[in-house]
Design brief:
four-stranded mixed β-sheet; five-stranded mixed β-sheet; globular; 13 helices; about 425 residues; about 15% strand; alpha+beta
């Protein structure tokens, strides 16, 4: 993303818009205008960046993590902080239709108008689904948010404390002149190990497109320019602003240095995937009851939406076939249906689930989650009332269906 030469007036206009929206929401003003925590500002200084510098978001469904990256003065991004995700819904794979409870996968842009200080889920912002490629593919739905309350029917759900901090960082970047924040949403971290395990999943061709965009970012640490043609993603292509998602791709020119680095990384990863397959890593399809959450929140299952569905996913082994359709055939087989039915039956018998301990590299995420208060007042009251009655708290329908004073409506997802 080009950020040099952005007029200071843009930042002032964004700041004025935030101030105006805060005035309109009266008692909620403290939420949208809360400062970035001093500890996070100190992290920015240590990383060589500032509050006003552009930011970038990377999210991973399987790992249930959301990363915040900030730009340094040299134009490269540096990882600032990782937030454990409190709740996500659906399965691995892109969102295709309204009401499928799927969290989108792809590259999206978050502008000032998508910030929602009036959200009924404490604070929220719209990620920008559907993008031009989603629309070209006929994907429907909308109003997909990053928000608080630990409730998801297709959104990236954080706690109130987390969204307050993420919102403040985004607000400061937009007020500093960033026109749009890029959000990269992945099914899982784009490692050779994950791709080897999911190599026969019916979504693998789409996931390889996402990996290409991920590689462009990782080799350059610069925001990749995103475009679409031939119903697929295109990254860092010269003249990409004129590309048509429905039309065939013309000859594309890319920065030779970045293109070479991406090609080398791709070759290295593909060799590792082949090695893992030969060494016995079996291809699988992972089936969730309805998404999941980061292990850091295992002790807070009753506070989230549809807690009875938060179970370890079922891994369905897929047959290794030279036929490229094998993955899709296996995915549609009765085995997958039976596994999902089995998981549903287990969920009806299981009220709480003990998840595996976190890896040592996630200790900081556990500490962050443990220090966070319960999601929202409405959820707190629900938990307390059910606990007093001796029942397992099950969120009301309003938790599973979005409603907001601004962009969060029950007609979407």
């Amino acid at each position: 993303m080009k950020t040099r030469g952005i007029a200071p007036a843009l930042g002032l206009a964004v700041l004025a818009a935030f101030a105006l929206s805060a005035c309109e929401q009266s008692g909620l003003a403290h939420r949208s205008l809360a400062p970035i925590p001093s500890e996070t500002v100190a992290l920015m200084e240590q990383a060589g960046t500032t509050k006003e510098a552009p930011m970038l978001i990377r999210a991973y469904k399987k790992e249930a993590e959301l990363e915040i990256w900030k730009m340094r003065s040299d134009g490269r991004y540096v990882h600032l902080k990782t937030f454990p995700m409190c709740r996500w819904s659906g399965q691995l794979g892109p969102k295709r239709r309204q009401g499928d409870r799927q969290v989108p996968e792809g590259f999206y842009a978050i502008g000032p108008a998508q910030m929602n200080p009036n959200s009924s889920y404490y604070l929220s912002f719209n990620v920008g689904y559907p993008n031009a490629l989603d629309r070209a593919l006929g994907h429907t739905g909308g109003d997909i948010m990053v928000h608080g309350a630990c409730s998801s029917a297709g959104c990236f759900s954080m706690t109130d404390k987390q969204i307050a901090e993420i919102y403040a960082i985004a607000r400061s970047s937009l007020a500093g002149g960033q026109r749009a924040i890029q959000m990269q949403s992945f099914p899982f971290k784009m490692t050779a190990e994950n791709l080897a395990k999911h190599r026969l999943d019916p979504n693998i061709d789409f996931w390889k497109q996402l990996k290409e965009g991920s590689d462009h970012f990782e080799v350059s640490l610069q925001e990749p320019q995103v475009a679409f043609c031939n119903r697929r993603y295109v990254f860092n292509a010269a003249g990409s602003a004129n590309l048509d998602p429905e039309a065939a791709c013309p000859p594309l020119k890319q920065d030779p240095e970045i293109a070479q680095a991406v090609a080398e990384k791709t070759a290295k990863d593909e060799a590792k995937i082949a090695q893992l397959a030969q060494s016995g890593v079996k291809p699988v399809r992972i089936v969730y009851q309805d998404g999941g959450q980061h292990p850091a929140f295992a002790s807070r299952v009753p506070e989230v939406s549809r807690p009875e569905t938060i179970l370890p996913p079922t891994e369905i082994a897929l047959d290794e076939k030279p036929n490229r359709g094998a993955g899709a055939a296996a995915a549609k087989s009765p085995v997958v249906t039976l596994a999902a039915a089995k998981a549903a039956e287990e969920s009806r018998r299981t009220r709480f689930v003990a998840l595996a301990p976190m890896r040592s590299d996630h200790r900081d995420l556990s500490a962050l989650a443990a220090s966070d208060p319960s999601p929202t007042n409405s959820v707190k009251k629900l938990v307390r009332s059910n606990r007093d009655a001796g029942n397992i708290p099950t969120p009301p329908a309003s938790i599973g269906v979005r409603k907001s004073a601004a962009a969060h409506s029950s007609r979407s997802f």
